[in-house]
Amino acid sequence: MSSHKSVRSVVASDRVITAFTPAYDSSATPYQKLNFHPIVKSACSENRTGRVGLKIAKAVLVGDVSVGKTCLVNRFCHDVFDREYKATIGVDFEIEKFTVLSVPITLQIWDTAGQERFKCIASSYYRGAQIVIVAFDLTDEKTLHHTETWMSEACATADDPVKFLVGTKKDLLSPSDYSKMEQKAINVAHKLEAEFWATSSKTGECVQDFFFRAMCLSFDDMLLKELESYNSTSKQIGNNLIRVQKSQSDLYEKRNKRVHCCS
Ligand SMILES: Nc1nc2c(ncn2[C@@H]2O[C@H](COP(=O)(O)OP(=O)(O)OP(=O)(O)O)[C@@H](O)[C@H]2O)c(=O)[nH]1
């Protein structure tokens, strides 16, 4: 297992999210929200974000061999592109610190190997992911056909994730070849109930927007769940308190009745 970690103690200014990043194509996404949930926005502005500020959003990146998964991560995390192919051995990971609506949150990106012989190792890292990214090569249609299997395997142990279908190597296609491929990819994305993106790690096209979008959707989901669980716990504590108060007042009433009878 190889790994090159980049843990930044201070959030870089280009990792500060103050507005909701839109979808690549509003007709190619199941996620139709255009902004952070109002409850999320007010919780952030009033500093009521519970444990979310301490949380890590886990993303797993899967797909066929050599579709460009490592290049996608390297373009986003280090702003570099390597034209030489070096196979990922097992799994690799990167950590990026963000601030979303002034709340600190860490994104952990697990870059898995596409080679069949590493599948067993790589799949053990899918568990608990809040973001599943299935990558395919826009210049190689058979890699698109395999995305259904990748998605179902990665989602099997993920945590109700936001799902993405990401086409890579857009720089290698002519506009007309791209639009033919895009339509096929959007059809697959609908089937997978995933959001479609097309990127180029060589030119950097849409790479940062894609990861920002993933962060926005997952942050919104995580904070809503956190606030819901906080509210239901408070409600339960409230109900228990009412029950205790009621049984205390019943006891008091019974004792008063007894005192009254005896006298
Ligand atoms: N032109 C172009 N080439 C790319 C792009 N992304 C990746 N490549 C090339 O595709 C090859 C494979 O890229 P990787 O990122 O190593 O592929 P991978 O999916 O991580 O491969 P595995 O680790 O084996 O699963 C490399 O030679 C890259 O230079 C891109 O956006 N444009």
From TrEMBL:
Gene3D superfamilies: P-loop containing nucleotide triphosphate hydrolases
Subcellular compartments: Golgi apparatus membrane
Primary enzyme class: hydrolase
Membrane topology classification: Lipid-anchor
Keywords recorded for this protein, A-Z: Golgi apparatus, GTP-binding, Hydrolase, Lipoprotein, Magnesium, Membrane, Metal-binding, Nucleotide-binding, Prenylation, Protein transport, Transport
PROSITE patterns xrefs: RAB (PS51419), RAS (PS51421)
Molecular functions (GO terms): G protein activity; GTP binding; metal ion binding
EC id: 3.6.5.2
BP-aspect Gene Ontology terms: protein transport
One Pfam family here: Ras
Requisite cofactors: Mg(2+)
Substrates-to-products reaction catalysed: GTP + H2O = GDP + phosphate + H(+)
GO cellular-component term (any): Golgi membrane
Residue spans crossing the bilayer: none
Superkingdom in the source lineage: Eukaryota
Family indicated by similarity: Belongs to the small GTPase superfamily. Rab family.
Chain's role: The small GTPases Rab are key regulators of intracellular membrane trafficking, from the formation of transport vesicles to their fusion with membranes. Rabs cycle between an inactive GDP-bound form and an active GTP-bound form that is able to recruit to membranes different sets of downstream effectors directly responsible for vesicle formation, movement, tethering and fusion.
Name of this protein: Ras-related protein Rab-36
